Each structure stands twice: as C-alpha cells, then as structure tokens.
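General statements about sequence and structure are easier to judge against a single worked case. No coordinates are needed to read the tokens, only the vocabulary itself. The sequence in question and its structure tokens are set out directly beneath this paragraph.
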Amino acid sequence: MYRFVLLLLTILIVGCNDGDDTNNSTLNNNSNNITENNSSNTNNSSGLMGELQISFTTVSNNGQYAPRNCAAVWLLKEDGSYIKTIKLYGYHYDYYLFRWKGDYDSTDADAVTSATRTGHGTINLTWDLKDYTGSNILPGVYEVWFEFTENNGQGPYAFESITLDGSEMSYTGTDSNNFSSISINYLP
C-alpha cells in the first residue's frame, strides 16, 4: 500500500510540471505594470510565424470595486470568429466580462489566467500567433479586444483592427477614456 501511495504521489508531482518554460510573467505591484510572455518558437509550416506584442494602459472608470478589476484580452477575425483569449485576469469573476463572454467559446479553456488586478496600469503581452486549437493563424484582418470591469456588471471595452500579412507591423491605437497608449507590433 505504501508503494502505491508513493507511486501515485510521484505521478501527481511529475504531472504538475508541464515542462513549458516559455510562459514568463512579471508583475510590479507598485506601478501595476504587467509584462506577460506567452510566445513559442515552434515551427509550423502553415500560418504566420513570429509574435504579436500588445501594450496598453487601463484607466479606472471609478467602479464599485475600483481600482481592483478583472480584465480580458482576446482576438477575433474580421468576421467576428473567435481566435484566442490571450490573457484573462480575475478568472472567478469573468462572468462580468460580458463582451468577452459573448465572443468566447466557453467549451474551450484557452486563456492564460491570473488573479484579479489590484490596480490599473500598463499591460504588456506577447502572443505566439496560435489560435485556441494550437494552429498558427493565417494572414488577414484581426480585431484585438480589451475589456475590464470594476463592478458586478458591464465595464468598458474597446478593440483595434490590425492587418497581419507576414511583414513587420507597428500600430498605435486610439486612446479612449479607459484605454490608452495602445501599441500593437508584429514581429515575424
């Protein structure tokens, strides 16, 4: 019996290490600036290669729980087809991210999740251009969506349209009341 329990514990411990050291995360609580790296150098013969770097700053809308907030960043095709959730903050409160929930196919858990954000600031994300199935995306027009809420209800959201054609691209988005300093860069 002792050997069985030891074997079971060994399997569980080894199983918890997925061997993926490509997800690196840095959080600076003093400034609420977040940097995420979710990139992979896996070669895929079809689709775009490289990475998409997304940076933006959230600004409070003075909600009930401000400055704490849950947030999501995801991509859609131009026709509204869901591609991937790049980052989800506040997993247990994601049901208040109504715009994201409307686009997201909740049967596929594809998001890199983190705790509820304790404040606002700059978020930096790097994405490996893989959709929720693990396939590289094809060249085309995409929408990068941002949403957060500080309430038990709908919060602000915005999106930026970008064209990815395989060549290096830098894009500066339009500032709004709650999202500013939007920068999207494609590096093949």
In short: Residues 2-16 form the longest helix (15 residues). The first strand starts at residue 23 and ends at 28. Confidence is low (pLDDT under 50) at residues 1-44. The radius of gyration is 18 Å.
